Amino acid sequence: MNVTTSTLSLTVADVDASRDFLCTYLGYQVAMAADGFASLTRGDAAADIVLLRRGAEVLPPEQRDRLATGLILALTVTGIETEERRLREAGAPITMPLRQEPWGERLFQLTDPNGIVVQLVEWAAPEDENAA
């Protein structure tokens, strides 16, 4: 198998709100769109995102009323301080401030109007517990 791209499909109540959030704050672009549907892409290695309106008949009946919940869309970035500052100044809803974990993960989170959590991550060298 050769995976050529990755796409995350999310069922949301308001496709336009998530589309606008992802395009405005995270640099996604609309590749295709129709009523209750948007396909978003970026020019880098980030996963493409498909947004489907809740109840869409293209989904199997048992999936139509499920919403994207409990999901964290994590994007690994460079220059995380610059991104956090840019997003804060742009008025993005930062719902977890920038922090660093002991294992070297630096991260912060935004939450879109449909409740989708987007986590931006940058990896730093882990703290050396044995350093004197």
Automatic annotation (TrEMBL):
PROSITE patterns: VOC. Residues 4-123 form the VOC domain. Transmembrane segments: none annotated. It comes from Streptomyces chattanoogensis. InterPro entries: Glyas_Bleomycin-R_OHBP_Dase, Glyas_Fos-R_dOase_dom, VOC_core. This is Glyoxalase. It comes from the Bacteria.
